[in-house]
Amino acid sequence: MKNKSFSFTHPGHKRRVNEDSFYVNDEKGLWVVCDGMGGHEEGLFASSLATDSFSALELNSTFNDNVERILQTIHFIKQQLDKKVYTLDINDFVGTTLILLYIKDGKALCISAGDSRCYILRNDKLSLVNKDHTRDVIDAKQETRSVLTNAIFAPGDINIDIKKFTINKNDVFLLCSDGLYSYLNIKEIKHAMNLAFEGRGLNLLKTSVLSQDADDNLTGAMICVL
To answer: Could you read off the pLDDT of 31-78 as tens digits, one per residue?
Structure first.
């Protein structure tokens, strides 16, 4: 089986800086979406550090060995974030969400931290591969909002969700930051993913969100298993 992906990132309508970052490599079988946090410069540093680190990663061994290399890379990213916080003497945290998909020899790995998501469309059934690391809180205006409970950040410990599974021909995956899926419903996402093999699906989602407020950065990668 081979893979073909489509990807994009956009700052949205209200953010001056795009703190999202992504890395896609169909031949390597690796796709990553990150949403940085900790202020404009620090958030962009964190998300770019993550995607640049995976870009430099060689995956030329077995599936299990490559999984270990991916995990080692996550620990490297965490170490670099720790150094950043120590150097700048930051009182707050610096970090990034992470949603990662790796495919090799009919096997798949999904790693997540934060509220970026991985959807799968299989046999016309849409489901989430990972779960959000969030909780609902009531703010000063007595409005309910979601806050992150986990990410790849410093200071703090690494706490990631790891899921391994098999893939099927014609599976479609969508990796995305919350700036994309927050403006979409399940029917819209499923309809777009059904158009993935035509190359129109991801652009349909992008156009839909940008026709609305789009007050956050938005990033997506749609992967087709051929």
So the answer is: 999 999 977 689 999 999 999 999 999 999 999 999 999 999 999 999
CB atoms within 10 A of CB 209: 23
The pTM of the full predicted model, rounded to 2 decimals, is 0.96
Say what the pLDDT of residue 88 is. Answer: 72
Angle between helical axes of 40-55 and 63-88 (0-180°, round to 10): 150
Instruction: Compute CA distances 181 → 29, 71, 100, 113, 159, whole Å.
Output: 23, 26, 16, 16, 23
- Point out which residues pair with 20 in neighbouring strands: 35
In the chain, alpha helices (H): 40-55, 63-88, 178-181, 186-194, 201-210
Tokens of 18: 């795009």
Domain extents in the chain: 3-225
Q: How far apart are the first and last CA of the chain?
A: 6
Q: Which two tokens stand for residue 100?
A: 């990662």
* CATH architecture for residues 3-225: 4-Layer Sandwich (3.60)
DSSP track, 42-64: HHHHHHHHHHHHHHT----S-HH
Cβ–Cβ under 8 Å, residues 21 and 45: no
Amino acid sitting at position 79: Q
- The per-residue pLDDT for range 173-186, each reduced to its tens digit, is 999 999 999 999 99
Q: What is the Cα 13 distance to its own chain's centre? A: 20
Bond from prior residue into 11 cis (ω within 30 degrees of 0): no
